[in-house]
Amino acid sequence: MMKKMVGLGLGVALTVGLTGCGGADTNAGKSSGQTPQPAQKKIIKYWTDDRHDQEYIKELINQFNASNKDNIEVELTVMSENYNQSVDIAFSSNQAPDVLRLKSANTETFFKKGYLAPIDTYLTDGIKSKFSTVLIDGVNRFDGKLYSLPNTGLTLRLVYNKDLFAKAGIQNPPQSLQEMVDAAKKITETGKKEGVYGFALNFKNPKSAMDRSVREILSLSGHQGLGFDIKTGKFDFTPYAEVIKSFKQMYDDGSILPGAETLDIDPMRAQFAAGKIGMYLSFSTEPGVYKDQFPTKINWAGALPPTLDGKRGGTSEIVSAGTWLGLSNNSQNKDAAWKFMQFMYGDEVLTTYHEKGFGIAVVPSIAEKAKQPQIPGMEGFLVGKLDSLWPVSPNVSPEGMNYADAFFKYMLAGGDLAKIVQDLNTRYNAALDKAVQKGDVKVAPNPGFDPAKLQGK
Asked: How far apart are CA 184 and CA 174, in angstroms?
């Protein structure tokens, strides 16, 4: 797929020239009696940092290039690293693409930097109806204007080894934190001689580990999973600390895989694939990982995460949802770029994207008719009535240690948990106040918020 290296000074970009039928008429204009030169092609550049779906996207672009009647040719560039920085450089040097892959972690940033053009004027009534229930302020919509439409999202689940559970005499995945602590201990006691431990996470990166685990335990319990209290409009890490106490208990019990504090995600997955870990929490990308990256013969499955007390007062948050493609504000061919985006957001593309296992459809009309992806284990990650999109938590940068590092330090070394929570609340709310004063963040208390109402029927 490599055509050329894009000289942006950061990252590695694999650029694919995906052309339609025919090329420029090199003999045009040699004599006045010849057929006039065909209209100049409109070249649309699409940049993405997704690699897991690039062969399918390549097929789609070939299809679009060959079939569109508007002489549009799309060129695909797949970034292997430093995507956001490469986008920054491209816009500052007038080399920006026409269409960008957007994700929840960069959409707001790109909007604030002026990289994105609103798409409201392009939307038909049919498109508005199709996406109406999954558009979120601060994700798709900013200052009343729409900048992206959703495609898929990631669910989070407890990933567990069914054989290790059975060997330890555990019939079902844990429903509460205490059950998780007890199960991890039993699995470890049963299998420690064979190097088997009950629990693990990629604690080499505490924030990555916490954001794929604690947030889902909390959201399913009825709390926003990143420490923000939607009802008060302030940060409050008190519920977060309840989960961390259980994590610390598993660590103190010796139920967590030794060396987890230096464990990255892929080495952890390799250990799970080898049958050495009883359970962990992660995204719906895991079935694809165990199909292709770490093929395994173990008997494993995904289940809803446990909650604080075994009761489900909220829903499991669907993450990285709400955005997919964005229109560049610097594009000289916005209408042509939108035609490509409209093709990509068509029912056939969205349905097949889900069915091939590249992501879980969050658009209701697509989720209802799409067939289950034929990937072992995916059935445990599909969107159900206890999965939903939550309101956006404000993103702030406090002075000092972030919440994940602070809580991980407590897991390893102990300390006064109440003081840790108080310190986090003070620093995060101070950062929130500053961000609000600068106009970078907008927050408002929502005392009537009911997380149970997010549940489907």
From this structure: 10
Residue among 365, 453, 334, 454 nearest 128 (CA)? 365
CA gap 407, 251 in Å, rounded: 13
- Strands (DSSP E) contained in 169-276 are 197-199, 228-229, 234-235
pLDDT for 52 equals: 77
In terms of pLDDT, which residue wins out, 126 or 394? 126
The crossing angle, in degrees rounded to 10, of helices 238-253 and 177-191 is 20
Nearest to 383 by CA among 218, 175, 150, 188: 150
Furthest-apart CA pair in the chain: how many Å?
88
- Are 165 and 158 in contact by the 8 Å Cβ rule? The answer is no
In degrees, rounded to 5, the angle at the alpha carbon of residue 136 between the alpha carbons of residues 130 and 142 is 115
Angstrom distance (rounded) from CA 430 to CA 432: 5
Q: Please write the tens of the pLDDT for every residue from 298-318.
A: 999 999 999 999 999 999 998
Cα–Cα nearest to 415, from 436, 429, 401: 401
First-to-last CA distance in the chain?
45
Distance CA(209)–CA(214), nearest Å, equals: 8
Neighbouring CB atoms inside 10 A of 447's CB total 8
The residues with which 79 forms a beta bridge, in sequence order, are 13
Place of tokens 């979120």: 136
Stated as kind and residue range, the H or E segment containing 46 is strand 42-48
How many C-beta neighbours within 10 Å does residue 436 have? 16
> Tell me, what's the pLDDT at 201?
96
d(Cα 194, Cα 177) in Å, to the nearest integer?
26
For 72, 106, 228, 428, the CA distances from 399, given in Å and listed in that order, are 49, 22, 17, 8
Is residue 322 within 8 Å of 134, Cβ to Cβ? yes
| Calpha distance 228→235 (Å, rounded) | 4
- Summarised one tens digit per residue, pLDDT across range 191-207 is 999 999 999 999 999 99
Question: Is the CB of residue 100 less than 8 Å from the CB of residue 325?
Answer: yes
pLDDT in tens, 340-395: 999 999 999 999 999 988 888 989 999 899 998 888 999 999 888 899 888 888 88
Give the pLDDT of residue 90: 97
Specify the pTM.
0.78
Average pLDDT of the chain is: 90
- Can you give the pLDDT at residue 33? 53
